[in-house]
Specification:
There is one protein chain. The protein is α+β, with helices and mostly antiparallel strands and about 120 residues long. It has one domain. Strands 5-4-3-2-1-6 form a 6-stranded antiparallel β-sheet. A hairpin with a 5-residue loop joins strand 3 and strand 4. It is globular. The two termini are about 15 Å apart.
Length: about 120
């Protein structure tokens, strides 16, 4: 991941979690809520919500793509569900109560670690 993106997430007040800093995706948290960010193939980033996986709505909703990375963009991924989601889809969403619960949810998630760019 581009260190500028990681730093922008940190500067916006969030903690990035990555399996490896060379990955093109991350989860991030405000301490409670969790979002997902992925670097675009041709620049920019996309953000998604994060919830406990289910058959109706998977692991989250794609929220936005943008060339710039702002606090507002990141915060848009922390919602329960987007306004356009159906009532049925909204009811299927169960959010992780904490980042610790997300990390403990699977062996895959256990490998996510907080990222700091401090030397």
């Amino acid at each position: 991941m581009d260190t500028k993106i990681i730093q922008a997430v940190i500067d916006a007040g969030f903690t990035p979690y990555m399996r490896d800093t060379s990955d093109t995706y991350m989860h991030f948290t405000d301490g409670t809520r969790i979002g997902y960010l992925q670097k675009g193939r041709f620049g920019g980033v996309s953000v998604s919500t994060v919830h406990v996986p289910n058959k109706s709505t998977g692991t989250g909703f794609g929220i936005a793509q943008d060339e710039s990375l702002s606090k507002e963009l990141l915060e848009s991924a922390l919602i329960h569900a987007p306004h356009w989601a159906s009532s049925f889809d909204r009811q299927s969403v169960k959010k992780y109560p904490t980042i610790a619960a997300f990390l403990a949810a699977s062996r895959w998630n256990m490998d996510y670690k907080p990222v700091s760019l401090e030397a």
